[in-house]
Amino acid sequence: MSDKPSAIIFGGLNTCSRALAQFLVPLDGEPLVKNLRIVDKYSVNPPTTYLGAEFPHVLKKPNVEYRQANLTVPATVKSCFDPPAGQDPFTYVFDLTGEIQWDRPEQVQISTTFQVAQHIGREAAARGVAAYVRIQHPFYECRERSGKEKEWAERDEAKPDGVLGTWWHETLRALAAIDGLNLVILRTAYVYGPYVDYGSIISWTITCAVYGYLKQPLKGLWSPGKQPTHTVHVTDVAAAMWACAHWMAERGRVKANEEAGEDISPALHGKDGQDVEGIIPAGTKVVAPLFNIEDDSKTTYLDLANTLVEYFGTTFEFHSFFTNTMAKFKLDDVVEEMNEQHVSTWTQMLEASNPPVTQMHLSQRAYMDVYALRKHSVAFPADKIKALLGYSLRRPAFGRETVAEMVDKFKQEGSWPRVAS
To answer: Which stretches make up the NAD-dependent epimerase/dehydratase domain (predicted)?
Structure first.
């Protein structure tokens, strides 16, 4: 253990941190790190967010520590870097902080995404950590002006999507500008996998389960469904973050920029946001190593829907031209009408489950919000991380088997209804 790094995971308990922690300190087998500290705003005992069935066992490992903390306070962030007495300083930092709800006010995005990451990044630079890996969710619109979809390599300037995307992207610029920070950015496709209960994939999965239960076809918007909806298994997110940390620790920021640096262009222009503390002026050039991570499926919206409905024993078709037209102008109304059936049927499934469902955290995912039903394109090819880091995907394809794995894990822990098909 003496030659292994020690690591801190900040944030992301409601996204990918649990999977990352279990990758670093597996339930069975040799840990990859000497010591692991996990820091987030949630309580784990008693839990104030969903933890999954396996993560609590990770927390019981002797080299794992969980700390509940308010990361909006710089002094608190600073104290989180102090190792326990007799332990070596932390050498790897994994930053998964940030607000992921699209409907939060801009000031919430600024304080909990933009400013929190800067507190952590500045302290990491001051401590001289060997690697600082920042996750970037796919809060971008991968469409060309002509309306055609394309794949977006790291060098391409995908447009941040809304207030959420803007401040997540500006966070990258702010981190990239911190002197001495050994920053690597990992940008993901749509994440799915065991115990992943956030994001679009789980909402679509529940919706397909509802229509399978009703024995009715699922109807989707946005025919013909060719837009890229690329996916990545949560295990590959964790493994890629670890690979990025090793890669950075071996070379440092200057060499890493030379090998993999990309211009992080501003999302804000003119006077927008220029009064926010820590904002990097639009005219300032910043560069940081950036890698995409996605699987090899090259999934489209139609592919995803067909895979899910096939698993749940139903079919997929598109709404009428009239409904599609209505959705373009009154999506809120269309969403409410859809959700009346989704939510009520999911509730019926929970009540009919044998054995009973004991955890209700997925109920909120039965409600598909406006953001989830808008037409999105997500396509971030992983060619660069494969070529430069030699990264090999652990779960290269999204398909029936991976859907079964996800649903079966939820069933085993008592959060997915067992109902007659």
So the answer is: 170-246
